[in-house]
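We read letters as residues; the fold follows as tokens. A sample entry reads:
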Amino acid sequence: MDLTRQIIKIAPSALRRIAARLIPRTMELGESPEAFLDAVSPRISNSCIATEPSVIEPDTDLMIVVPCYNVEAYVAECIDSILAQDTTFTYRIVAVNDGSTDGTADVLARYAGHPQVRVITQANRGFSGARNRALERITGRYVMFVDSDDRLPQGAIQALMSKAAETGADLVQGGARKFDGDTVIDTFIPGQGEVFGYPWAKVFRSTVFGAIRFPEQYWFEDTLVLFVLYYACPRAVSIPDITYDYRRNTRGITKTSKGRPKLIDTLWITMQLAEDHRRLFPDGAPSGTAAPAAPRIPFADTLLTQILQNARRLRTLKDLRIDYANFLLSCALIKQYSPLRADAAPRLPMLDAALRKADFRDYMTAVYLKR
């Protein structure tokens, strides 16, 4: 056996021995785990299920939603990259100025009379609130989301919409590039059945948003994509074309959130969207839909993957009591929304076993090993 395999084989038992010395099996929080975490960062309970249905009146093939907040340096490049698309499909941009305090409004004013651009101005509601404003009235047969500091490479709309027209898909996803200035840093090409957990680089059938919105006031609102939108789109197709360029952002939430109490939103939104998923898909899929284009990822695996993500985010708060409270609520999530399956092995077997037997030490070991 080579050294790498020996390390992989030994590591779990070694970590368990370390955990046995350093991690208690139980901890005293003095109150319920939810109350404990709520005192650190108040719980938000905003559902993704719309209280009022969208008005869907398509007069174009594609509606492109661009939420804008303090992006005067980038938003013209973003919108121009969309308007420069060479495509046989009709589209309209809906740019939502979400209470910007810089010169974003002045930049958007240049496009106010453009026949393919609609500008909406509102008080600040955050990324989700800006997207949701546009979704109140949907004018495309498909919907696309483009962040205002990013851009579309030439041919993006044609590639995505051609595949949608060819297959009748509810969701078409393309590849993406991460860039900084003139340098491409990384490239991501999705495989069939794989969905990136971001709303961009995709087109969605607009009827998907008839009763679904982005949950507002949370961090990590894009959790909606894998928890709800993916399951609302039975026919999901991936293409190898690069359809999105996203800018490296050193001020984005991934870079700036570490160590901040509001990171607990990652758990709050998981709890809310798990319940929303159950309400929207009580039988596992939306009613009256076509057969899936590819095998569905079981929601049990989606939930496990998110629990692992939550744990690793919350470790940056460096408080074992927070880890323990998150663990207890994650055990409850697994029990409520992921009944034990006999038909397939879980994607993260060590984590799944630790949660089902409520073993905090094994849970922490599984988190560090990502298993």
